[in-house]
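Q: what does this look like with 2-amino-3-ketobutyric acid bound?
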Amino acid sequence: MTETILIIGACGQIGTELTMKLREIHGIDSVIASDINTRNLDLVNSGPFEIIDAKNFNAVKDCCKHNNVKTVYLMAALLSATGEKYPMEAWDLNMNSLFHVLNLAKEKVIDKIFWPSSIAVFGPTTPKVNVPQHTIMEPTTVYGITKQVGERWCEYYHEKYGVDVRSLRYPGIISHKAMPGGGTTDYAVEIYHEAINNETYTCFLSQDTYLPMMFMDDAIKATISIMEEKSNNITIRSSYNIGAMSFSPKEIANTIKEHLPNFKISYSPDFRQAIADSWPKSINDEKARADWGWQPDFDLGKTTQVMLTELKKNS
Ligand code: AKB
């Protein structure tokens, strides 16, 4: 039986586009998409799809065994804002799903894992600007705690059991296909939708809140690149810093105004402001650049242009 790839959490913001890209590269039938429900029908109907709860070890194991899955992309997670509302659920999903795939690799059912970490591993005591790969990490969100602990477990499984697990610390991801859900960086997607639909947006972060961000095409490129790299070149088995751009709500609004002069933004910070304030403003990704040639293609101007063009087509 030919080897296949499984994406867990395929209906989410990144999972949707990652699945399509992997199908383009490896062929539709070689890539099995899975999620807890069928909320994204375009994705569900685009190739093999299975309903899988990432917390259910036997369901994940059965799928891997029946389909000769050798590589798993574990994209299911509760993000920062949702994690603060449902701390135990976030811990349960984010940690147990990771243990399931790490243990399947330890048992040699699968060969290779991609698991996303996040800039949420950093906290208020981390340097704010140009955060190095190795630094103080005292996250203050449940989501950040799960990602930090997950990183330690990934490195542990690699060192002790030889598990080939690879990971990136994603910044906020901006995209025009599936919506993000439950994150603090989600404003940077919502703002484009509201700009196209209503020419106005009320931001839940204050105007000068700088955060690291990345356009989806760059996130997919980074994910595929790290997974395709020779194992020996992956010297970080916790998770790599990757950066592309950093901006504030005021700056993104100004780039939108260049295309839509009537666009208006107002600010009404909520509980997500404290989360954003605990994270760094920019990331040093020189290790990813040196080890596997990471380089982003999209800055804020290019991102705004593509976002507005694509969203306009569907409005
Ligand atoms: C979030 O805002 O929670 C996520 C992230 C930065 O990992 N987008």
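Residues 87-106 form the longest helix (20 residues). The domain at 4-171+215-241 is CATH 3.40.50.720 (Rossmann fold).
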